[in-house]
Design goal:
The complex is a heterodimer. Chain A has 15 helices and no strands. In chain A, helix 5 runs parallel beside helix 9, helix 5 packs antiparallel against helix 13 and helix 6 packs parallel to helix 9. Chain A is mostly helical. Chain A has one domain. Chain B is mostly helical. Chain B has one domain. In chain B, helix 3 packs antiparallel against helix 7 and helix 6 packs parallel to helix 11. The interface between A and B is large, with 66 and 53 residues.
């Protein structure tokens, strides 16, 4: 009995269990409805493929070797963008909006009454989301290599992995911060998530290098700088520079090391900010009686 | 009016009203108008930047192809919105608002209700298409050339295409009676299917042989062909060979008419079957949360 009591009151153990419990639902629970692999993993590949064919359509008839190298890089840019889109959409719809869903289906009050940290809950959600989304991201990458024949130049795999995981931590930290907004708002915040699709695909350069903004005028540079607050933008640019060094050099925005450093700062920044905003919005929502109000 | 027709009209009218409220009443009208425009304009800008990258990295220019891509993308807004507006109704009512059971037992036609809810999305899509095309024509050098003589062909093809889309949308909605919460996967995937195989953003000839064959079997491919043929200037249209140039417009209209009727009948059959199976399996008001 004493052992049980100690176990349940140890904050670290409690939060780890809470995080695992929330991740479990996504990692294991979702597989009880395996149709998601088709709907969320394979179907979205069609949209990515369409963007690949846009570039191929532009290059129809080109036989010059330099043009073919350029085409390989552009298709590779789209494939990497497709990988990052998978994570971005997961952050928007399964992280940021998740507390809204929980509110709508009546789980939120149960979470609020449980003794664990809200960060543990969101952390578990993020880990589960990353695992689920990896299926789609991995499928996109495999399709890029074997269906579209993209050839990558992998020079520094450790740095590549480092950038990828720091980007994910920063992205999901951002998702946690957005999630806190849903404690207070309902459909307004849901529409905000909807609004963060195409415009973010644009400013983050999911289908083209973000350095292209430099070529559209003075304001383009400022768009790219502003977009750097979104971890996907810098993470994607750094990955492209590592995997397509020659073609990326035509659209250099920041060098890889600077982007890695900024991503590290963003990861810490968003996690700390998420903790603060969660506390603030939870208090505010309780004070205004909006924490459990559904269908608002 | 015939009581059955009256019931369908009432179902459609109030479903459209409800759809409009759900779409727009979360904010002020001006903010809703901006919201409705930002997404399609951002989508168009993605293509602008992709074309820019192509001109720089590929050291080539092709304004005709850019025109082709831009107009295809603008009209694709109808496809995405109509399909999503239709197939998300059941899942939104069932999983999100949890009102499906109440709407379902009310004295309406639920089939017509789905179509009514989609009507709002079509209206918003029309607004977005007009804005996107105007933006392209005014600021991006997109050439639009719809003559008075081509207007009847355009209008007929457009309407038949929309009926086909609604039919496909209801078929998908019917399937969602039995599926878990996959709205986002479907929202990306199903329009992605048409995006890829209907020659929306690139000539069909770019696809491998099996992809071209599949594209030629989808009625919307011809819809996009007719839309471009009537909206783009002749020299631009002729500069991007699609492999469908030789097709007679009247044959295309006939094909669209046949497909609109076929998908309408299929949607009724599928709707009834899936509704029956969902009721039998006790899935009509299930929720799937993870």
């Amino acid at each position: 009995m004493t052992v049980e009591l100690t176990k349940t009151t140890n904050p670290l153990a409690l939060n780890v269990r809470a995080a695992w419990g929330r991740a479990y639902v996504r990692v294991v629970g979702a597989n009880r409805e395996p149709s998601w692999i088709f709907f969320d993993g394979l179907l979205p590949l069609l949209g990515i493929a369409a963007y690949v064919f846009i570039y191929q359509g532009f290059f129809v008839g080109a036989t010059d070797p330099a043009a073919l190298v350029a085409l390989n890089a552009l298709v590779g840019f789209v494939v990497l963008g497709g990988v990052m889109i998978a994570f971005w959409l997961n952050v928007l719809w399964s992280m940021a909006s998740q507390l809204y869903w929980e509110k709508e289906i009546g789980n939120l009050q149960l979470y609020m009454m449980a003794p664990m940290s809200r960060m543990a809950l969101l952390g578990g959600m993020a880990i589960g989301g990353m695992v689920m989304t990896s299926v789609r991201a991995f499928t996109t990458l495999i399709a890029g290599i074997f269906v579209f024949g993209v050839a990558f130049q992998l020079a520094d795999p450790l740095l590549l992995l480092g950038i990828f995981f720091v980007t994910l931590i920063a992205l999901y930290g951002m998702g946690m911060m957005f999630a806190s907004l849903y404690l207070l708002w309902g459909r307004e915040a849901w529409h905000m998530s909807a609004l963060l699709e195409e415009p973010i695909f644009l400013v983050s350069g999911f289908y083209f290098p973000i350095g292209a903004f430099d070529r559209v005028g003075a304001w383009g540079r400022w768009v790219a700088i502003g977009a750097s607050i979104i971890p996907a933008a810098l993470g994607l640019d750094a990955l492209r520079q590592l995997l397509f060094p020659v073609s990326s050099s035509s659209f250099l925005f920041l060098d890889v090391n600077t982007e890695f450093l900024v991503l590290l700062v963003l990861a810490v920044f968003f996690l700390v900010l998420a903790r603060g905003t969660l506390r603030y919005f939870e208090t505010l929502a309780k004070r205004e009686g909006r924490l459990t109000s559904r269908h608002q | 009016m015939n009581p059955t027709a009256l019931r369908h009209w009432r179902s459609f009218k109030w479903a459209a009203w409800l759809g409009w409220q759900i779409e727009s009443n979360w904010t002020e009208p001006w903010l809703f108008a901006i919201y409705s425009v930002i997404k399609p304009v951002a989508g168009a800008f993605i293509l602008v930047l992709m074309y820019l990258v192509f001109t720089i990295i590929g050291n080539m220019q092709s304004p005709e192809r850019f025109n082709f891509v831009y107009i295809g993308n603008a009209f694709f807004i109808f496809v995405g919105n109509t399909l999503f507006g239709t197939f998300q109704v059941i899942q939104a009512d069932r999983e999100w608002y949890q009102t499906l059971r109440y709407v379902y037992i009310s004295p309406i036609s639920y089939y017509t209700y789905i179509v009514g809810r989609a009507a709002t999305k079509v209206l918003v899509a029309a607004f977005a298409v007009v804005i996107t095309l105007s933006f392209g024509a005014l600021f991006l050098g997109i050439r639009i050339d719809l003559t008075l003589g081509e207007l009847p062909l355009f209008a007929a093809a457009f309407l038949l295409g929309m009926f086909t889309l609604v039919g496909i949308g209801v078929c998908l909605a019917a399937l969602s009676f039995l599926t878990a919460r996959h709205v986002h996967g479907l929202a990306e995937g199903i329009p992605g299917l048409f995006y890829l195989f209907c020659g929306v953003l690139f000539p069909l000839s770019v696809l491998p042989g099996w992809g071209q064959a599949l594209g030629q079997a989808i009625p919307l491919t011809y819809w996009f062909e007719i839309v471009r043929r009537t909206v783009m200037p002749q020299d631009y249209w002729a500069a991007v060979p699609t492999g469908l140039e030789g097709i007679d417009p009247l044959m295309v209209l006939l094909a669209l008419l046949v497909s609109a009727v076929a998908f309408f009948l299929l949607s009724i059959g599928l709707y009834r079957l899936m509704e029956y199976l969902a009721r039998k399996a006790g899935k009509l008001d299930m929720t799937t949360s993870y």
